[in-house]
Amino acid sequence: HIVESGGGLVQPGGSLRLACTASGFIFSQSDMGWHRQAPGKAREYVASVTTGGFVSWYVDSVKGRFTIARDDAKNAVYLQIDNLKPEDTAVYYCSARGLWGPGTQVTVSS
Hints:
single chain; seven-stranded mixed beta sheet
């Protein structure tokens, strides 16, 4: 079971922190990922973090603006998004072990 939160409407240049909480599997032994799907576009893999948080990966378009972090004590993974751009507007999904949450909407607009 995976649930995302933290989305909302924000102006360009603003920031959001998305949260994902998970249950039903051993969180600390699972790589975690964030994806997004913009209207009319395919789902895009944007960030991931390995077990222990030792390695993180970002798609080129978000490097320097997105930061993924995990808290194994809380079974949670976060996505800090800074300097938001209108093209970041999408539903953001958390995933692990083939499981997906329902997503959280991020809208960037003035």
